[in-house]
Prior knowledge:
The protein is mostly beta strands. The chain has one helix and eleven strands, in the order αβββββββββββ.
Amino acid sequence: MTIRRLIAACALLFAGLPGHAGPVEDYTPKPPSEWRYFSDQVMGGVSEGQARLQTVKDEAFIRLTGTVSTENRGGFIQARADLERGFPAEAQGVVLKVRGNGQRYFVHLRTQGMLFPWQYYQAPFQAKAEWQTIRLPFAAFKPSGRFLRSTPRPETVTSLGLVAYGRDHQADVTARWIGLY
């Protein structure tokens, strides 16, 4: 086993532990204060919500709350972090610390070359009431259309979004993007 594979294996083991994201290279995720909120109202939908900073035990989180409505061809609220550069090519996925109201939420990735706002890759997760660390491998992200690659290439990712999507419901999810593995 090469030293690089040994380090990667150790990073995967520790990625599930609080405070250990198993970082790839020296990649630092965007802090919650740099995330921005938007909803389906940009395209005529009626969903309403907000994304605000929340501090829990000296850690900053983004809390996404609101009413998601599929009325008027809508159906999402989102908090998004735009990236200055893509992820390292050897990254295998993203790690987040989350809690919520027991419902299904999504992480959306956008990549270079996506021309339309309805293009993204998405991976679902369940936001339980207690804190949990989730790891979403890039292979779990599905394209929003057939003209996209089947799996996003890490080095082309331009943004990461926390999304309540696709059905009428009350959204309440709190998350912190820990890093990559």
